[in-house]
Every structure is written in C-alpha cells, then in structure tokens.
Design goal:
The complex is a heterodimer of chains A (163) and B (150). Chain A folds into 2 domains: 1-84, RNA polymerase sigma factor, region 2, helix turn helix motif (Rna Polymerase Sigma Factor, Chain: A); 94-163, Orthogonal Bundle (Arc Repressor Mutant, subunit A). The N and C termini of chain A lie far apart (46 Å). Chain A is globular, with a radius of gyration of 16 Å. The longest helix of chain A has 23 residues, at 3-25. Chain A has 163 residues and is mostly helical. Chain A has 8 helices and no strands. Chain B is an all-alpha fold and 150 residues long. Chain B folds into 2 domains: 2-58, no CATH class; 76-142. Chain B has helices at 2-9, 15-21, 26-38, 40-58, 66-73, 76-105, 112-142. The longest helix of chain B is centred in the C-terminal third of the chain and has 31 residues, at 112-142. The two termini of chain B are 53 Å apart. The chains are: A mainly alpha (163), B mainly alpha (150). Chains A and B meet through helix 1, helix 2, helix 5, helix 6 and helix 8 of A and helix 2, helix 4, helix 5 and helix 6 of B.
Amino acid sequence: MKNQDMRNQLVQLGNGAHALALQILGNTDDATDAVQDAFVKVLNKPGAYDADTGPLAPWFLRVVRNRCIDLIRRRRPEDANAPELSDPGPGPEDSLEGEQRNRLLKRALASLSDEQRQIIVLRDYIDLSYAEIADVLEIAGGTVMSRLHRARMALKEELTRHG
Amino acid sequence: MVDKERNIDTHVGELLSGYVDGALTQQQRQLVSLHCEACEECRETLTRLRELRESIGKANLSELYEDKWRETMNDPTVQTTRNIGWLMFIAGLLAIAGICIIGFLFSDEIPVTMKLIMIAVYGGLAALFYSVLRQRLIERKTDKYKDVEI
C-alpha cells in the first residue's frame, strides 16, 4: 500500500480509533495520546502492515487497542482498575436535542463493561464486520454475535433506565 | 409445524443482533423472520436494536474531527522522527559503502585491472540507478493526480 493511501485511510480511521480508545482509557486526552502514538508507530514502520493479511482498519485498531492496554498497565496501581468514563459535559456546537441524545447515549455506554463498550463501538460506530471485530479484540469469531447481543441488550436496558 | 411451534416458544436471542447486522445465514434469517411475525416481544427488541445501531452510528463519540488527525499526520514530531530515522539509515549505509570503497581502492592484494573493472561495473550501476531515480522524481513532481484524495 502506498504511503499516501495509508495516510488517507488512517485519517479516516482517526475518529473511530479515538472513540475506541476513549472506551478503554476513559478520558479524551489519554485516548488522543494513544491514537497519536499508534499513528507514529505505524507511519514510522509502514512495512509492518501487510495488505495481503486483510484490511487496514482492524489491524490499525488492534495497534490502538494494544497501545491503550500498555497505557493502562503503565498507570499507577490505583488508576489501573476499570477506567471511569467521565460524564460528558454539554458541547457548544451541538443542537440541544442532539446534545441531549448524545449525552444520554454516552452515559448509558459508560455504565457498561469495558468489553461491552468496545464491541459496540467496533460494530455500531466503526462498522467493522464480525470477523474484523474478532481480530481486533482477539476473541473467537463465533462468540462475537452473542457478546455483541449481550452488550446491546445491556445498553438498551441502561437507556430505558436513564430515559 | 413442529418447527414453527418451537420457533414461537423459544426466543431467538442473539440471532436478533445477527439479523440487524446482516450476519445470518438464509436459514437463520428465515427463522428470525418467522419468529418475529409471531412474537411481539422479539419484534419490539428487533426494532429497538435497529434504532440503537442507527443512533450509535450517528453519535458523536469521539468529539474530534478528521482535520485533527490530518494535522497529527503532519505533526512535526512525526515528521522529525521519520526524517531522523531516514537520515540515520542513509548515513549508516554511506559510511559502510565508504569504508568498503576505501578498503577496495587501497588494497594491495587486488590488482589494478580488477579494480578498474569493478569501478566500471559499480560506476555503471550507480549511473543507471541515478537515471531511474531522476526520472521517477521528475514524474512525481509533475504527476497531476498526486494530491487527489480518494
């Protein structure tokens, strides 16, 4: 893959990767750092990605996810346990209704387990296939549907509770 | 008939998610369709799952914008690290090549004719490499599609 093509694809993956990192790390600055680190890693060693082994998206997201896990391990022990997603404050650029819906969704997502948040973001936000999700999360392909369904049902419950 | 009864009695569970994602076999799709025709609870869950997927797809979960990542790509740290990497690699190669050339030229064990032949061979290869490289660089500079982003 040409370097410029890879850069364009990575730019498009940026937001999805950031959303995934945010679910793992719990705060936007750490998530931004993790995605930037992954960019540096990939751009400094573009040969590490072999296009014959599959699309760039799941490969890059796995790099981002591993970077997040590294960051969690390096955190002080008291911070290392399940990260708490902060309650998102209102964004000035959003419309009132859209903003409210977005906050509600984020709050509901924040109450799910780490794994459930990740699988929902990978499928419903980034739109990866089941096989790609299995690749990123390093789980058996046959378990994706059931895990995803449990996560969605939990999110549905939370939204009903908060709504 | 038995299948249909079982279909109604047992909820289809995770298959509903597979149905929403288009990840089922034709047989499984049929099973879910038949079940949802008869089961209001699963029909409602299916609708809710579709809405959920749509709202997450439209949500702003990242709060950052594509331009942010484009800037990151051109971040000085990224560029500098890569440039330093290339510089060190090329400097190392040149140093090795220099040592080999000096060793070869000043060696007393290699006859002068052999030295001249080797200089001709490697000089020729270097000239060919330079001409191809120059052509590529000129093409790259004048390629009108190089900045087109897909």
